[in-house]
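Re: zinc ion structure - here you go.
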Amino acid sequence: MYIGYHLKKKVQFVEIMHFNNKNIIIILIDALRFDKLTAGGYKYNLTPNINKLLKEGTLVKNHFANGCPTSVSFPAIFSSTFPLDYKGYNEGVKNRPKTFAEVFKDNGYDTFGITSAHPSGDHFFYNRGFRIYENLLDFYQWFRQNLKVLLREDLTRYKNKDITKNEMIELLSKNYLNILNSTLKYVNQFEELDVKSKNFNVKKNKSKIIEEIELLKNNPEIVLKKFIEFDYLYYKFLGKKNISNLTRYFLKYKENLRTRINDIINLFPRRKIYEAKEIFQRFKRYFLNENKKPFLAFIHLFDVHESKNFTVKFSFSYIKNLIKLLFIRRFKFGGFVYDLAVMHVDDEIGKFHEYLKKNEILENSIVAITSDHGLKAGFPPRPKTHLRTDLSQQFYEEFIRVPLIFYPKLDRKFDENKLSSHIDFAPTLLDICNLDKNEGFKGKSIFDQNRYSGIVLSENTGSGICDIINKNIYLCLRNKRIKIVYEIESKNIKERDVFDIVKDPNEFNNLVKSNLHETERNEFYNFAKQRLETIYSYV
Ligand SMILES: [Zn+2]
């Protein structure tokens, strides 16, 4: 009786405590660069709405991504571990100890997430801890990137006869089967949510995916043949055993024509994302139907990431922004479509802010706005390398420096000149909500006096699949004065780039061959050596 009474009292206390907790709304604007905000020094004001939130909120102005692009950065944001920890980022957050959504769920929050991009979907375990996690993927990109990132290197090895047909089929049977199973899950979710796919007939293709799985199990050679012949258009022939010459001819003709037109103007885009407006709509639907308190919502916007796939849109607000931007920029074009997408997302954030206010959600919520990495868009120009997208080159400031904004203003003080990075994001969220620290998290809250902020770290294993054993490892270390990128080949640590980011903030002048900054370079070298030991300790 006594214990029972106590337990009951405790439960009541927990419930009351949580009732008073604020909701957390995370808006992740994929690929938003810090230097494209006026707060980051941009000469054009593209983001009046974000600026308003920023003015009444808290800006963490020296904040960095632990890697670029999405697939590399996301593990750090979600699980407060570095991209190359736990054998790397091929399987997203599958092997990481804990995600922030799991912690919030354990603490009684209702958890809702929505992603509009394939690298952050269920296939990579980003739904961990979310009661509802909606994958509004662009199926074209999903199929294409799977080939590019997960299968391309093995297929090339097979074509070059570096691996046998049997070995290739074995790899395909495992990796492609996983992809097909995830595709089936995504298709089912589209049906359940009653959402229409923009470039993939979900109903029509469902049975074809099942047939393709059967084909892969019983006749993997046919599947391999399709990959070799059609490359990333393989998904047009799901479940098909025989493809007639007429179909072949027609497809090639159609796709060539499409490419030729799109090279001039992107009239028939293959990529079709769910736009910010539609994503916010999903949140509104969730709030209307579920309305549980407190909640944690993760909202992922992909518009800025996809800005270069510019399509002509005939909406009033789009044309208004286009004309406005032409005048703001005085008809200067470098990075124009990127800026246009930023303006567009800012408009939608303004509207969402109004919605939160009107529905009395804002007063009970903390909004966090951040980005996962930047991308190339206008200034500064960078030298080209042999790869079209060379991830080993994506450590410049425009790729790794990202905004982090909390709204309303947080009532606790922190040193805003200190450096922080995305591994600190989840611990900061926990701290803001007075939740216990999580042992699986490697970062620390920005309010933690003991947080190490001397050097921030970004890393990857270059383009394509993550492979710590066989590929070069790239580590980028940055403090307030210098940045060094190391290229590590067979455990041999070599400085590749050294920049004085105070004197040369655009990183145009590589000092690697000079003797400058010797003390710091030694200190950084030891840091890199230690980091490498940790990376290898997992594999
Ligand atoms: Zn991204």
